[in-house]
Design a protein that fits this description.
11 strands; two-stranded antiparallel ribbon; nine-stranded mixed sheet; alpha/beta
Length: 284
């Protein structure tokens, strides 16, 4: 990840089919709508661009809210322009009032990728910002997806084993009343292990590590793919499992593709799904 203070928040919305009796008489079609709130990566590998590619590749409809405009490429970030808060708020309201009306759809799951620490271990947020996020955002989410460094910041504990990941996921889930996916990509060894704790149960996802220099936007892609599978109606553990498989394939297919001269992107469209078009008979 290259975003400074970069935050991803995903709001999942199912566009309502039956608003009135009149609409019931007309067969309507729609997409599951996934809204990504993120920074823009002009090189297209991470941030809002990666989210839109992922959501589209999995057959859903991608809406977006841009929180920052970055000057970056596969070699790194050169500048960041923060979008004013009122403009961010206006974008969210514009999408929500049209594509996902609150009154008709009160249950919008939220997936939050708390990008607090860079892949190099550098903290990207001040302590007061982290505290505010813990107090104000975490309780609103359906899932948070910290990596190992971020999990250590949140728990105040060093994490070096899968068992410690499991305990940290449980601790955070119980403390903030949300599902937690601790990403273990930085654990030593040849095996990837992620731990999900949700509804009192722990799920461990194991995969062989894939050697690739093209890992730009991996976290964004994982979060947005989880969000999309949740929007398609899968329960949390299955949504995470399918998202993990999608990301692993995107890394594997993209590992030998040269885009730029640095840390290149994943191959998001390795096997695009057909548009998930729903009609009123399916989503009543």
């Amino acid at each position: 990840m290259y975003f400074i203070g970069y935050v991803i928040l995903y709001l999942l919305c199912f566009y309502p089919i039956f608003a009135t009796k009149l609409l019931k008489k007309t067969k309507m079609k729609t997409y599951p709508v996934v809204l990504s709130i993120a920074g823009s990566d002009c090189s297209g590998g991470a941030g809002i661009q990666a989210d839109i590619k992922t959501i589209s590749a999995l057959g859903a409809y991608a809406a977006s809210v841009i929180t920052a405009v970055t000057v970056q490429n596969t070699r790194g970030v050169k500048a960041v322009h923060i979008v004013p808060a009122e403009i961010v708020q206006g974008q969210i309201e514009a999408v929500m009032e049209d594509l996902c009306p609150d009154a008709l759809n009160p249950h919008c799951p939220i997936v939050y990728d708390p990008v607090m620490v860079s892949t190099s271990g550098r903290k990207l947020m001040a302590k007061d910002a982290i505290q505010l996020i813990k107090e104000e955002l975490f309780p609103l989410t359906s899932l948070i997806t910290p990596n190992l460094d971020e999990t250590e910041v949140l728990t105040g504990k060093k994490i070096t084993t899968a068992e410690e990941m499991k305990e940290a996921a449980r601790q955070l889930s119980e403390e903030y009343h949300t599902a937690v996916l601790v990403k273990g990509g930085h654990l030593e060894g040849n095996e990837m292990q992620d731990v999900l704790f949700t509804d009192g149960n722990a799920y461990i996802y194991k995969e062989k590590k894939i050697e690739s220099r093209n890992l730009h936007g991996t976290g964004c892609t994982l979060s947005s793919s989880i969000a999309t599978y949740l929007a398609l109606g899968l329960p949390m553990d299955q949504a995470v499992g399918k998202a993990k498989s999608y990301v692993s394939k995107a890394i594997d297919v993209g590992k030998e593709i040269i885009i730029g001269h640095g840390n290149g992107p994943l191959c998001h469209f390795w096997g695009p799904e057909k548009a998930r078009i729903w009609d009123d008979n399916k989503v009543e």
